[in-house]
Design brief:
It is an enzyme of class 5 (isomerase). With 237 residues, the chain is α+β, with helices and mostly antiparallel strands. Helices cover 41% and strands 14% of the residues. The structure holds 5-O-phosphono-D-xylulose.
Amino acid sequence: MSAGQGTGRPSGLDGYPVEVRAEVAHVRELVSRLHAELPRWGLVVWTAGNVSQRLTSADLFVIKPSGVAYDDLTPESMVVCDLDGNLVDGTRSPSSDTAAHAYVYRHMDRVGGVVHTHSTYATAWAARAEPVPCVLTMMADEFGGDVPVGPFALIGDDSIGKGIVDALATSRSPAVLMRNHGPFTIGPDATSAVKAAVMVEEVARTVHVSRQLGEPTRLSQDDIDSLYARYQNVYGQ
Ligand SMILES: O=C(CO)[C@@H](O)[C@H](O)COP(=O)(O)O
């Protein structure tokens, strides 16, 4: 795939306004830095996870190149794609999950960031195709209920993206466990999606440990709604 292929634009960002190129520079730096959070929080091994953020000034997003070690990622090595997943700017092949990120951006206007990992406990629940039940205040706060499971889908076309969008359409959760694959998380920006990736691993681990001791107690729907409303609207600064 060559830069600008199928877009009718010249290669790279030359045809885009200066404010778009300035935002690309900022988002390249942000997305590069956020990739370092994945190994820091123990969410990935080797190169197995990716972060993207959509631009506000154009229908483009920034994502990592495929199969490059986290220590070697730089703002310059990030790639820019359009919302069909075509490479627009960059010298490397985009992440193998680019089509899934692009599908989410095309179908969920409120989403500005997407993250995928294979973090151990969340992926263990995905392997069992079992939603993580809402048995913790932290889950009610962050996920507003159970963490749902999406269908199994092979990589390479829109199947994963469609599975993510369909599963999240009926949930308040910013995380979905794609069956036999792993977690995908969303947010208004990439930082929020990284936070959701950290939180889903934490609650998957805690609920798993709780299950070793017996059956955890579900929160009532009223309590989940109350906790979710407080955390989403009042918590923090
Ligand atoms: O799930 C997969 C592959 O099955 C991917 O998430 C890889 O684990 C990371 O791919 P790149 O982002 O490096 O292409």
